[in-house]
């Protein structure tokens, strides 16, 4: 990265201390440094949207995972969307809209090879949601890992969230019966009335076991797309059809505890000759263009709808906005839009 850009400053969120539980303001520092200039092969991006993702919480543990832990004083890792303000890369020009892992900061210089140019045919909310990382997670998790077949019964947790909302709608496009699981009556009403799921279980006020017995009688769940882990995963395991597939996408209920609780009902995988498989959306990177094209078609036809939960603020708001994920305060994709003043 080269030096500075006309004396302007760029603020960044850095990890100050490793949290025990949900991170609070005290776990972050906001620092300021000159806006960088582009070195050879680099572009400088003004970050407009910072993505808030549950997996960021996992990066705060000092342990081996699929991504290296964020170090103390390091700029917080985050997906971003922004505009190129300077380019020394042949593939990018000033004014291009790009996405990439530029971190929780106002401006960043990065090697252009690691950035994706975004079209302006779809609104930024769609680029951040169904056409972005969480939409791709829904697509590959359900269709490739879940090997979904027409007419099957699908259960998805985190149903009103960025990933879950798209999972259920893809399953409807594929002619399946879909049961969502979400927190609270408003979210459940949204999932059924706006997203078109067949039913939704409010795990905060309903008995999930009883509800699944009623909505998917005689153990008829063919695919369970798991975003939350914990007790909900354990309960769904009691309702599997023969040869069911459990897609382990995430386990947000366990992210704020050092030691995750595993499912005690896993023996049902044997009883029902079922399989449970984890995946990472990044592994499907080579296939993203074709998945995005299909998703864009569904959006244009109105078969998939979305709500982006974009919070307008400044970089100082990152700590509070991040907490919303764990309080269930988001509907659809949670993003922080930076007001650059
Ligand atoms: N494998 C991959 O490649 C990949 C990629 C992207 C995301 N993921 C995973 O997919 C899951 C969803 O991510 P997202 O970005 O789409 O987030 P999201 O669903 O938009 O937001 C998180 C939601 O999780 C629910 N939640 C929070 N705490 C919970 C708890 N203790 N028990 C049950 N539900 C809880 C909340 O909804 P309620 O109000 O309904 O509780 C909250 O709105 C996460 O587990 C994430 O790590 C995996």
List keywords for this structure.
341 residues; 15 strands; globular; binds NADP nicotinamide-adenine-dinucleotide phosphate
Walk me through this protein's architecture.
25% of the residues lie in helices and 26% in strands. Helix 10 (318-327) links the parallel strand 14 (308-313) and strand 15 (333-338). It contains ten helices and 15 strands. Strands 3, 4, 5, 6, 7, 14 and 15 form a seven-stranded mixed β-sheet that branches. Strands 10-9-8-11-12-13 form a six-stranded parallel β-sheet, sandwiched between helices. NADP nicotinamide-adenine-dinucleotide phosphate binds at residues 53-55, 134, 137, 158, 160-164, 182-183, 187, 227-228, 249-253, 279-281, 325-326, 328, 330, 334.
> What overall geometry do the principal axes of the alpha carbons give?
globular
**Total number of beta strands:** 15
Taking all residues together, what is the mean pLDDT? 96
Query: What is the helical fraction, as a range of percent?
Result: 10-25%
What's the end-to-end separation, in Å? 25 Å
State the major sheet.
7 strands, mixed
The distinct bound ligands, ions and cofactors come out as:
NADP nicotinamide-adenine-dinucleotide phosphate
